[in-house]
Amino acid sequence: MKTGFRFLGDFMALSIRHAACLIMAGALLAGCASHRAYTYADRTAAGNAAADAKYPTRTQVHNIILTEGDITDRDYVVLGDITANVAKNTLFDPDPTREMIDKELKKQASAMGADAVILVRYGSVGVTLMSWGELDGKGRAVAFKADNEG
User: Fold this and answer.
1) Are residues 72 and 100 in the same domain?
2) Among 31, 82, 119, 144, which residue's CB has the most CB atoms within a 10 Å radius?
3) For the chain, how many structural domains are there in total?
4) How much is the pLDDT for 149?
């Protein structure tokens, strides 16, 4: 009987050591991950054709105007709505900020040929099953009309 209990005790100690090693390995690997960012653009078919024909050039990312309001002093064409998501994958990654969302929105807008992102809205930071923190942002990509377009 003693031999049976000793074997069971050895087996439990071995299982605990294996589990501890797996947990430590997982924690070390998770520390190597970086934050992730997603962007999504919703362009209508009419918006695609108009944008591709009239606004083929891309505005550089650092020149994109970003505002939470509307732009009323210039005429523009709406290219589409865009969404960005920045997540903190591990406890050690930096917390998602509005500046990170702004950067992702500007990248997406530049790829669409936009001059500005208007009506920008930010979500709240929340912890999800797959991240330690996540922040969403939305806006509308627009291209300014040339003076002669009316």
Assistant:
1) yes
2) 82
3) 2
4) 60
